[in-house]
Amino acid sequence: MDQLIIFTTGGTSYQLPLNLRLYRLSRNALDVAFNSFKGKPNMKFSQLAWQQNEANYQAIIQQPFNQELMNGTLERDKFAYYIEQDSYYLQHYARVLAKIASRLDNSHDILQFLDFAKGAIVAEQQVVHEHFRQQFNLKYKRQVSPASVGYTSYLHFCSHNQAIEVAIAAVLPCFWIYYQLGCHAQQFSAIDNPYQLWIDNYAGEDFARGVNTAIEISNRYYEQASSTVQKQMLEAFATSARWEYYFWDDAYHLCSLSHDIVRKSPTKLDNE
Q1: What pLDDT, in 10s, does the model give residues 144-173?
Q2: pTM of this prediction?
Q3: Which residue, 115, 117, 112, 111, is CA-closest to 98?
Q4: In the chain, what are the domains?
Q5: Burial of 41 (0-12, 13-18, 19+ CB in 10 A)
Q6: Torsion of CA 215, 218, 45, 155, to 10 degrees
Q7: How many Å apart are CA 165 and CA 265, to the nearest integer?
Q8: Are the beta carbons of 154 and 240 closer than 8 angstroms?
Q9: What is the 3-class SS of the chain, one letter each residue?
Q10: Across 79-101, average pLDDT
């Protein structure tokens, strides 16, 4: 039987399958992806994780939401819904990062994750609220998407119940995929793109430094972990990377928990 996450929002409780079957994510597929990289010694966690999830990243780039964002043609209501979900996500992400900090022993790493948590709060308050919400006069639906709840629930689960190395791996895709997407979008962004600030924010040098630090920490903890925990780290990274795909997909289709929607995996890893 699938393990379930019980998550409560707005006074209503929801049960979400931990293995993400809501979106037909096969646990066997993760094992296949991991096994395909066995026998390659001296590879860092970041190298293994990115190669394992390259197809998912390419699928994210090709999503209608991100293509239209780069072209400057994304409908405002879809961007508004994304920003609303991002605000929800960042509030939870900050708590997850702070929880990871509370479980660490290395004082440098503790301070770094507290700084990450502070950065998530600042991003929510300044970039999301002050610029986009106010300047664009965005109208919120006051709804939460399945991916918003599923993704944040998964991160809370990892930060509270999994090995600290696994929790660190689970939060890395948010850093890394956003930076890679921001750099890609900056190269292909349309002239006078109304979403240029969003693109520049995630392609900027300040954000890049944070991403590099998160990658370095993940690599270091991977090197010190047992083979069992190393495998769990790769699985956690892959799971969060999938949630990243569904996060944008839900925003584009204006999905909320009131809709019973099942999507196909962004890659062909699932057993059809």
Answers
A1: 999 999 999 999 999 999 999 999 999 999
A2: 0.81
A3: 117
A4: 54-252 (1.20.910.10)
A5: exposed
A6: -100
A7: 26
A8: yes
A9: CCCEEEEEECCEEEEEECCCHHHCCCHHHHHHHHHCCCCCCCCCHHHHHHHHCHHHHHHHHCCHHHHHHHHCCCCHHHHHHHHHHHHHHHHHHHHHHHHHHHHCCCHHHHHHHHHHHHHHHHHHHHHHHHHHHHHCCCCCCCCCCHHHHHHHHHHHHHHHHCCHHHHHHHHHHHHHHHHHHHHHHHHHCCCCCCCHHHHHHHHCHHHHHHHHHHHHHHHHHHHHCCHHHHHHHHHHHHHHHHHHHHHHHHHHCCCCCCCCCCCCCCCCCCCC
A10: 94
Q: Note the pLDDT tens digit of each residue in 123-142.
A: 877 766 677 777 777 777 78
Structure-token pair, residue 253: 């289709």
265 band by pLDDT with thresholds 50, 70 and 90: low
Give the pLDDT band (50/70/90) at residue 218. very high
